[in-house]
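Marked as duplicate of an earlier ticket. Keeping the data here for the record.
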Amino acid sequence: MRTRIKICGITRIEDGLAAAGAGADAIGLVFAESSPRRVDIDLAVRIAHTLPPFVAVVALFVNPTSAEVNEVIRHLGPDLLQFHGEETPAFCQSFGRPFLKAARVRPDLDLLQYAADFAAARGLLLDAYTPGAHGGAGRRFDWSLIPAELSLPVILAGGLAPGNVAAAVRRVRPWAVDVSSGVEVAKGVKDAAKIFAFIKEVQNADV
């Protein structure tokens, strides 16, 4: 199986093009108010419209209102929604769009029950738990906490970078990997060489 790759937190047109050119399957555009990688809708549309075919656009939210999500859907038309906060299953499903639900993994989180609660999701994005943050902190979590029998595809995130993603893929065998800070030179500013190296390491691990 080929591991899919999402480059998240894209804030510049050239970074979206670099991700696509290196072989990414998807880019993530962040609409969370508190994120240093947040983009407004106008910029998100410009980035999305420059992408070549077959590169998916994922819109990421943290505890948004319905109006905020619907505005992004209306103007951007993302391929997937990604909810990274305390959204309920009913809220995530209310937009009639395919979605991912993020889980911040810690020992006391029952991932089997979490997957059952969000059974309508296309996958679970597993990220590190950092108090006061909803992702993008560049920390990895204990991969042994991931149950082998999860009912949803796993998108592995949390502290991934070119130096450790091959080991992560071989250990977890996720459906996809998601990286943001691990391919940056500054928050929201990607490094094309790091993106290329990250994707090459994933491809090598798939062999």
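See parent ticket for discussion. The first strand starts at residue 4 and ends at 7.
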